[in-house]
Amino acid sequence: MDRLVHRVCVAKDHQQLALFDSASSWAPNSLTFIDGEWAYCPAGKPDRHEWRPVEARRYEEIRDEVEERVRTRA
Prior knowledge:
The protein has 74 residues and is an alpha+beta fold. The chain has one domain (4-73). Helices cover 20% and strands 30% of the residues. It has one helix at 59-73; strands at 4-9, 31-34, 37-40, 51-58. A hairpin with a 2-residue loop joins strand 2 and strand 3 (37-40). It is globular and about 30 Å long. The N and C termini lie far apart (35 Å). 16% of the residues are buried.
């Protein structure tokens, strides 16, 4: 098993940066494991994803690229 991200969530309402609230009963987790591969969701939401395959890359690379895109669209 590699540690590369193979999928990115493109669900419209998931294209925001994850915010952490320590008082919340739920904390965002941007990475999840789907069919033996790592997947990244910018919002870190637990459900209703639309996964799109991407060229496998390190988490940091995917995160920086997606978060820059989210910031420029805001």
